[in-house]
Write a structure and sequence with these properties.
Number of domains: 2
Shape: elongated
Helix content: 25-40%
Order of helices and strands: HEHEEEHEHHEHHHEHEEEEHHEEEEEE
Strand order of the largest sheet: 4-3-2-1-5-6
Largest sheet: 6 strands, mixed
């Protein structure tokens, strides 16, 4: 991959603030992004997909979508210049049993190639009907198992529409209908596995996301007594747009302070006030993520607004934050190949109780989707396990958003606060690491200035 990095000229945002990030950030122009996306996809098809199909014992994978109703898996397989399927797009991957470059046959039942990745295999003059062309491909290769994307546990792996399924079966001989199996594990494996090429670029994506949070949670954006939480939310959205990036969810910003409000889970996740003026003494929290080069981030961090005369975060809040960090460690210490999401959840919660930490864990895979395919490790309202996706095992070369909170009593506030943390990490099969580190200290607003005391 050519090391072409282009500095981005940042634009001023609509919320009054200095537009430059505090440290240099690079974002590739569109043409270079397309090249990177296609190189990664080509590598995944050539070096990963054959191994995956053999691991799951499926020798033919058929993925069918119509334009604007794309299968989630197919969306991740389209070339950079294809923003959607075209008419009806059918992809066929066939394990030839050979090794090397000939291990996998990659076909599109279409009148043209799908970029440089799949060869068009439909001669409309010979077989005018697209389903008959697909059936001929199947009959010629005689697969033992035909994987289709239907799944009860994962929406990501359930992309075959009812109409497409019915029309396909009307043309497929009964002999081959008996060979149809769910491609759930194949689809999840494709989506959850991160390749070396992807992990080479993921740290920069996570760093970019971290830097945007650091800027948004600073005096460049927040004027205590004036700026509202909603102002900051929309600053984040505008910053993403100005950088030429995208996001997979609307950010949230919330406040905990020394008042009578109970910051319970329902308030946290569903009934958060839209607009609160940010004041000195507030502990503020953001949930934020970006999409770049077809990979996603999902991060939650905290900042404290200094009161007049304060120079640092109060010790009680620092101590609470350490409990949040320790809860992260307790969870990631459970990461071992083959353990299910539910097993990791329950083991981590048991250990946190032994250490006196009142924790809630709701961690999820991340990658080509934000809430991605793979083992679910708790949900905020399902702390005894999640049937289905929680029973899926942990596998190597997978990425996760370590998302959780620790509820801690703050004596000075006479209430419990929630230290809500989320950081993106990678499990290589032996060890877990944060892709761009994690927050270990709370930001202050304003920041401490060197030589000023």
């Amino acid at each position: 991959m050519r090391q072409l990095i282009y500095p981005l000229l940042f634009l001023l945002n609509t919320v009054p603030a200095i537009a430059q990030l505090s440290s240099s950030v690079t974002v590739l122009p569109e043409r270079e992004r397309a090249r990177v996306v296609d190189e990664i996809l080509e590598d995944r098809f050539a070096n990963f997909l054959p191994q995956l199909m053999r691991r799951e014992g499926i020798d033919m994978w058929v993925i069918i979508s119509r334009e604007y109703n794309e299968d989630p898996v197919l969306k991740t397989m389209l070339p950079s210049t294809w923003l959607s399927a075209r008419r009806r797009t059918i992809m066929v991957f066939y394990d030839t049993g050979k090794e090397g470059a000939d291990a996998l046959e990659k076909l599109a039942i279409a009148r043209y190639d799908v970029g440089n990745l799949l060869k068009g295999a439909w001669d409309i003059d010979v077989r005018p009907n697209q389903w008959e062309a697909l059936t001929k491909i199947i009959e010629d290769r005689k697969p033992k198992k035909i994987g289709l994307n239907f799944s009860a546990n994962y929406a990501h792996a359930d992309g075959l529409a009812f109409t497409e399924h019915e029309e396909f079966l009307q043309k497929l001989p009964a002999e081959y209908q008996k060979r149809i199996v769910s491609a759930e594990k194949l689809a999840v494996g494709w989506l959850e596995t991160r390749t070396p090429k992807e992990m080479a670029i993921y740290p920069l994506i996570c760093r970019l996301s971290h830097q945007i949070i650091q800027e948004g949670f600073s005096e460049k954006v927040i004027q205590p007594g004036v700026t509202t939480t909603d102002d900051v939310v929309w600053w984040f959205r505008q910053r993403i747009t100005n950088l030429g990036l995208d996001t997979w969810f609307h950010p949230t910003v919330d406040v905990q302070r020394a008042d009578q409000e109970d910051f319970n889970h329902l308030r946290t996740f569903a009934k958060r006030p839209d607009k609160q003026v940010i004041m000195p003494g507030d502990l503020i929290h953001v949930d934020f993520g970006i999409t770049y080069l077809r990979l996603n981030t999902d991060q939650q961090q905290h900042a404290y607004v200094l009161r007049p005369g304060e120079t640092d975060v109060p010790e009680a809040i620092k101590t609470a934050f350490k409990q949040g960090n320790r809860l992260q460690e307790i969870l990631t210490e459970q990461f071992k190949v083959g353990k299910t999401g539910n097993q990791m959840l329950l083991a981590a919660l048991n250990q946190s109780k032994k250490e006196g930490i009142n924790g809630t864990i709701y961690t999820h895979p991340i990658g080509v989707h934000g809430h991605a395919a793979g083992p679910t490790i708790g949900m905020w309202d399902q702390q005894k396990g999640v049937p289905g996706s929680g029973d899926y095992p942990l596998l190597p070369n997978t990425a996760y958003s370590i998302e959780l909170n620790a509820a801690v009593e703050i004596p000075e506030w006479k209430k419990i606060v929630r230290i809500m943390l989320e950081e993106d990490g990678f499990f290589d099969g032996q060890t877990f690491r944060y892709i761009d580190g994690r927050q270990t200290e709370i930001y202050t607003i304003p920041r401490k200035l060197e030589y000023v005391k």
